[in-house]
Amino acid sequence: MMWLLSLLLLHFTLVECFLPAPINVSIVSFNLEHSLTWLSGPGTPLNALYTVQSLNNMSWKTLKHCASLKTNQACDLTNTWKDYFHLYRARVQATTPSQRSNWTLSEVFDPLTDTTLGPPVVFVRGCGNCLILNATHPTSRGTQHLLKLFYMSFTCQVRRTRDGSQFSLTSSGYTVIDYLEPGVEYCITASPAMFLNIHSVPSEPHCAFTSPAPTNTVPVVLSVLCFLLVALFCGFLVYSGLLPRLHGHVLKALLLPMKSTIYSNTIQLH
């Protein structure tokens, strides 16, 4: 009788564990926002749900907000893993009403070194022969005081657009970059200079002229000079009394061809 019960227990255990385990379990972290992702194991039914547990004080604890996730859903761990001086680990299991899979574990996660720091927010404007740089941390749902610590200083690349010459500097967020060429465009790229973390994404180049870009004023000056010369010439004609006589000569020159034409037409009619 005992052997029969043991056989039945082994049978139900094998049936219960027959469901394929999730694969590619990984932790994705960007700007201290953490999430657990995975893929369904081969042959997993479409109605399978997934349960996530987190290792806490040497014991596994089921996360209520990640207890019945559907396929392709991720588990948000941002508000669960708040102690950034602690190492974390998670695991995920697939379940159906009659089956469940084995647990699949993630790698050990360190929030201080494994999160990816996104590009800082950068503003650049000119100030004559200098540039004013403002850089700060991006918005995130992660812990703000730690985020500010990550973005406490920045490594900046300053590049002159005209010839590509560049130099680097370290900024604490607000910096006046002096001794630049006036009226020239420079582009600045910034990234967080945090020694604890090597995973970071630099900002896009932010460009500005040190002072307003020089404009070509030659056409404007020539136009003004031509207008002044014409105005002076007309004024001279009026002042000297030549304009009425010139007007009479011009009028005669215009009427003479008309008189000749009328006279020719009259002769032809007679």
UniProtKB/TrEMBL annotation:
Residues annotated as signal peptide: 1-17
Transmembrane found in the keyword field: yes
Transmembrane domains' residue ranges: 220-242
Provenance organism: Umbra pygmaea
InterPro entries: FN3_dom (IPR003961), FN3_sf (IPR036116), Ig-like_fold (IPR013783), Interferon/interleukin_rcp_dom (IPR015373), Type-II_Cytokine-TF_Rcpt (IPR050650)
Domain Interferon/interleukin receptor: from-to ranges: 115-210
Domain of life: Eukaryota
Pfam family, one: Interfer-bind
Protein known as: Uncharacterized protein
Entry annotated with the keyword Ribosomal protein: no
Entry keyword set: Membrane, Signal, Transmembrane, Transmembrane helix
Domain Fibronectin type-III: 2-103
Database matches in Gene3D superfamilies: Immunoglobulins (2.60.40.10)
